[in-house]
């Protein structure tokens, strides 16, 4: 079944289709296919005959254009050329993005590692070096086709998605509209006060889950959200929410970061604004993906009023943080 034959995303993408796609590139699968944890796309570990397994990533229909995916792959290649440990796409006939049976997919080497121990100073120092080198490469040129980090796309459009849908109970709707609007207006104020930040190509979603630690160094994975934005976007998710711990962590990150790339400390004022954008966008992302059967299973609380009462409280707390700052 082709992806555009059914309204349900990834319907018909079973193990046989995955194997057929991999073997269409000239590889021989041993038939072992293991689904890996991924919601936005579908990712599989595929065993090969007489070779190391590969990771096959099937892209969600309609999310990125071919040009945007290929620009992500080119960014990965550029980072690898600079000696950074990221997972580059495997190319066949010079191409990283492939089409098979209506699906778009790419193959990657299997990357091992474990979660970083963020409390260890040496881990934060190594991460700072890696990020400094990544951002130095990212500053060389801008993305031509991939999205920019902006308040309209991540914030206001996300709020509209939630307010226009069936998710929020009528009794809470007015409060969500008022608090959500106030929160995003506070985000706009924070960006205005920070001035014009220098943007660069970023990882875009660099939380500890996208860092693998192996051989005493960090390995960055999942550049699916790579975009153009301020450097602090790749920093704030690695820092603790507690201000005192966060300050010590930032000092360690910056120790080696600034050996490779300049950092405008004024961008740090955007950290809580970026956190606000993320918590609004996260719930809109789930709402937009609700027709995907994986999402109701993964987020059953999304249909409960008590969940939305907690979300409203979270938004109010974040608004208070922004106003205090």
How would you describe this structure to a colleague?
This protein has 325 residues and is α+β, with helices and mostly antiparallel strands. It folds into 2 domains: 3-109, 2-Layer Sandwich (Phosphorylase Kinase, domain 1); 121-324, Transferase(Phosphotransferase), domain 1 (Orthogonal Bundle), CATH 1.10.510.10. Helices cover 43% and strands 15% of the residues. The protein has helices at residues 15-23, 66-81, 121-138, 151-164, 170-194, 243-257, 271-288, 294-298, 305-324; strands at 29-36, 42-48, 51-58, 98-100, 103-109, 199-202, 211-214, 217-220, 227-230. Strands 1-2-3-5-4 form a 5-stranded antiparallel β-sheet, covered by helices on one side. A two-stranded antiparallel ribbon has the order 6-9. A two-stranded antiparallel ribbon has the order 7-8. α4 (151-164) runs antiparallel to α5, α4 crosses α7 and α5 runs antiparallel to α7 (271-288). It is globular, with a radius of gyration of 21 Å. The protein starts with 14 loop residues before the first helix and ends with a helix.
